[in-house]
Design a protein that fits this description.
The complex is a heterodimer of chains A (about 525) and B (about 30). Chain A is mostly helical and about 525 residues long. Chain A contains 23 helices and no strands. The mean pLDDT of chain A is about 95. Chain B is an all-alpha fold. Chain B has one helix at about 5-30. The chains are: A mainly alpha (about 525), B mainly alpha (about 30). The interface of A and B includes residues 39, 219, 275 and 277 of A.
């Protein structure tokens, strides 16, 4: 326990946790989801999911991490092993190491685009691509998937990716308080300041082109907020809202548990966990909802924005926004603010996602910090390079679906079941039959959650965690699988994917399984060595 | 933006800002 790392301050911890949660999705995914799923009415299922899914899972993960930290266990492998005396617990827990690592593998590439576009804004590199079609060509040319654009090779893309990897590894190498906490203390306030500047710019835009009086900021906010209450009965809208809460809070990856493991035994989880959720919601609902979509409506009109929103987050962020910046006075500066805030949002998340794997190598495998970071860098490079080179073949789509969607929910379900039904079972009394066992289920977790709490967590959350949360997670999992299977572009069935692309997508799936099995083997080896 | 939009904007912003103020006030009070 003596040389175990720790957070230097509580504010630093909240900022690092919030940095973990706040990502590109707060600025690109949320306003799209709201606009496409009932506007203001989306807020009803959104906040229901926030209360029934987001906050409870956040508390579960914080408590789990802090509990494991008492036994020097920074990853869910060790934490599950402590909470559930079963030889498979650590193997299931290894998912909380491989999932965040797999996310970082593709997330760092997207993060590198934001870094590149920050420089492209300052240097006005994309200025001249004034139409969405030409800006789209710019992006695809940068990614190496279209010819005839300004980039003749992928060297810039690979270069920015390597710089992004280097920055991430450097922060992780500096440690919890010396790297991650310091980064959060700088990046998070800057992100909020940059976002506020952009929001003020958007609000004061009025009607940019008097020839189109409908294209104004008021209608832009209306597109995000005007409620369509008829959609409240729609299953996909509730699914989208629950999904947004899930993604935005970065729950289900295992990274929150690693951060929380550096808490002290009686440190508060309740208020600090709530502050993390609140910061994320402020950035998402107040700031994220007030930039990209409203400004797009002001410049392109409702119909065009609806089409952009339907195409996806990247079109909104990397195609529509740069076109708009070229129409604004001081557009290069606003462009740099936009992309650097996205970069800050990205890097504060990716360093969190890297932490479990580095902790495994360092604390369970006995590697030095330098060696652990070097191995992590090697894995990121080897598994990440195909993401860059095979982007046009849907290689990254497989990662995004299986890791960023399915496995996050699966892992959340596993951790919730362990927290409720396995944790404290030995001390919860042997006899009494199944009814007694069911009655005692979740009690140990609830007590752990409330230890050292700076506020009394309302009792209703005990029942939400015990009864509602597992059902909600099953609902989400089934809903998403069903949604994909019935979609024309099903990732599971690889509908419409043929020839070379099908081969590469199978290789992508293979690489996911390889890494997951590899991490599980590392965990098994580490435990074997410890037992010897 | 219509009246409903303003209502939901106020609701969303109010919840997000209110929750942030509540939790950070608690943390800062404890820090002192």
């Amino acid at each position: 326990m003596s040389n175990r790392e720790a957070w230097a301050s509580r504010i630093g911890l909240v900022l690092a946790m919030a940095g973990n949660a706040v990502g590109l999705g707060n600025f690109l995914r949320f306003p799209r989801q709201a606009a496409l799923n009932g506007g203001g009415a989306f807020l009803i299922p959104y906040f229901v999911a926030f209360l029934a899914l987001g906050i409870p899972l956040m508390w579960v993960e914080w408590s789990m991490g802090r509990y494991g930290g008492q036994f020097n266990q920074s990853t869910t492998a060790g934490q599950f092993d402590r909470m559930w005396r079963n030889r498979w617990a650590k193997i299931l827990g290894s998912l909380g190491i491989s999932i965040p690592l797999l996310i970082t593998i593709y997330y760092c590439y997207i993060e590198s685009w934001t870094l590149a576009y920050t420089f492209f804004s300052v240097g006005k590199t994309y200025f001249g691509s004034t139409e969405q079609s030409s800006m789209n060509l710019f992006l695809r040319s940068y990614q190496g998937i279209a010819e005839g654009g300004p980039f003749s090779s992928m060297v810039p893309a690979v270069g920015f990716w390597l710089v992004t990897l280097g920055l991430n590894l450097w922060v992780v190498y500096r440690g919890i308080s010396g790297g991650i906490e310091k980064l959060a203390k700088i990046a998070m306030p800057l992100l909020v300041v940059f976002a506020i500047i952009l929001v003020v710019r958007v609000i004061t835009l009025g009607t940019p082109d008097p020839a189109y009086p409908d294209r104004n900021v008021g209608n832009g906010f209306g597109f995000v907020w005007n409620p369509d209450l008829s959609l409240l009965g729609s299953f996909p809208v509730w699914l989208a809202a629950a999904g947004q809460i899930f993604f935005t809070l970065s729950i289900g990856s295992g990274s929150i548990q690693t951060y929380a493991s550096y808490l002290k035994k009686d440190d508060d989880c309740a208020v600090t966990g709530l502050a993390t959720c609140a910061t994320n919601e402020f950035v998402e609902v107040v700031l994220g909802g007030s930039i990209a979509i409203p400004i797009a409506v002001a410049f392109f009109g409702l119909e065009a924005t609806r089409a952009i929103a339907a195409q996806g987050s990247f079109d909104l962020g990397f195609v529509a926004m740069p076109v708009i910046f070229q129409k604004l006075p001081l557009g290069a500066i606003f462009g740099a603010l936009w992309f650097s805030l996205l970069f800050f949002a990205g890097i504060t998340s990716s360093v969190a996602l890297l932490s479990p794997f580095v902790a495994l190598l360092k604390e369970n495998m006995g590697l030095s910090r330098k060696a652990a970071v070097a191995v992590t860098g090697g894995v990121l490079f080897v598994f990440g390079l195909p993401i860059l080179l095979l982007l046009q073949h849907g290689y990254m789509d497989q990662y995004d679906f299986w890791i960023g969607t399915v496995l996050l929910v699966v892992f959340s379900l596993i951790e919730t079941l362990i927290f409720v039904f396995a944790f404290g079972r030995a001390s919860g009394g042997g006899g009494g039959g199944i009814l007694s066992w069911l009655r005692n289920a979740g009690v140990a977790g609830w007590e752990e959650m409330n230890r050292g709490a700076d506020m009394r967590i309302p009792r209703i959350f005990f029942y939400i965690i015990k009864l509602v949360l597992p059902l909600l997670l099953i609902f989400l999992l089934v809903g998403w699988l069903w949604e994909d299977l019935t979609s024309k572009s099903s990732v599971i069935l690889m509908r419409g994917v043929e020839g070379e692309a099908a081969l590469y997508q199978w290789i992508s799936r293979g690489s996911i399984i390889l890494l997951m099995v590899g991490v599980a083997v590392l965990v098994a080896v580490a435990w074997k060595r410890r037992e010897q | 933006m219509n009246v409903g939009g303003w209502v939901f904007l106020a609701l969303g912003w109010g919840l997000a800002i209110g929750l942030s103020v509540f939790s950070f006030a608690r943390i800062l009070r404890k820090e002192k």
